[in-house]
Specification:
alpha+beta, disordered C terminus, single chain, Aminopeptidase
Length: about 270
């Protein structure tokens, strides 16, 4: 965290405030485009904000550094985008459905929330911001009676061969049961490599390649769908992460509140 900021300077906010949403979009641009190499079109580059049609209907969970706000800056140093299934159904659906077939959740949309666009300012990756964000997610789940979290979890880069050990590890150890297993859309489907094509050492190396935020979801009981999708725009390979709340235990929530991954940047 920025040496000039303490945990008491951080504040969690939730809602659809346009000013907060714009500040979150600016943070997303800095992380996804400037840091992680997403491909910005001229309009996005000119605006300096990561935006799409889902922003207008989603709730934006943000962490603000009040010292930055006092200095006249927007102050958003961490963010999540939360989109409930019932809200998405009244509009253009869930973002995840652009990569994965979510038909098996059609009857459970009132219990579904999509987690996306998670990122933290590089100067604040000591865990405190993620702790607050996860606290906000937990409160959001309880407030709206939600029981299934899902979203696209991203591995950096688009080289599926280089990411093969990581994808094989996920498929071997964290594949969702059939009733929770969305499949990548046929025209974008990348088959997860078989674990048998790698040595145990290579699979352990693959596990180490997983981003900290994805590892945290898996520790909580998260599982992945069938296949992966290459997202050339965001320079990632995506898997569909599904986390039913009945797989969560209080001890996991306490664990996350005290040991959030310090360098989590995207999901």
């Amino acid at each position: 965290m920025d040496a000039s900021c303490s945990a008491t300077d951080l504040e969690l906010r939730l809602g659809q405030d346009p000013l907060l949403a714009r500040a979150a979009q600016a943070l997303r641009y800095r992380v996804f485009y400037e840091e992680l190499g997403a491909e910005a079109d001229p309009a996005t580059r000119s605006a300096g904000r990561d935006t799409d049609a889902y922003d207008a209907i989603a709730d934006h969970l943000v962490v603000i550094d009040r010292t930055r706000m006092a200095a006249g800056e927007p102050g958003v140093v961490g963010c999540y985008r939360l989109l409930r299934g019932t809200v998405a159904a009244r509009h253009q659906g869930l973002y995840t459905a652009s990569e994965f077939d979510l038909g098996l959740f059609a009857d459970r949309l009132p219990q579904v929330v999509e987690l996306g666009r998670a990122c933290v300012d590089p100067a604040y990756r000591n865990g405190a911001v993620m702790q607050l964000l996860w606290r906000g997610v937990a409160q959001y789940l309880e407030r709206h009676g939600l029981s299934v979290m899902l979203g696209c979890a991203s591995l950096p880069g688009t080289d599926t061969v280089a990411l093969g050990p990581a994808l094989a590890y996920l498929g071997a150890h964290h594949l969702a049961p059939p009733d929770l297993r969305p499949s990548a859309l046929p025209d974008r489907h990348v088959t997860l490599p078989a674990a048998e094509t790698f040595t145990p050492i290579e699979l352990q190396r693959g596990k180490a390649m997983l981003p900290p935020l994805l590892k945290a979801y898996l520790r909580m009981g998260g599982v992945i769908g069938d296949g992966a999708v290459v997202d050339h725009l965001f320079n990632t390979v995506d898997v569909c992460l599904v986390l039913p709340t009945d797989r969560l235990k209080d001890r996991y929530l306490r664990h996350l509140a005290t040991r959030a991954p310090s360098d989590a940047v995207a999901a």
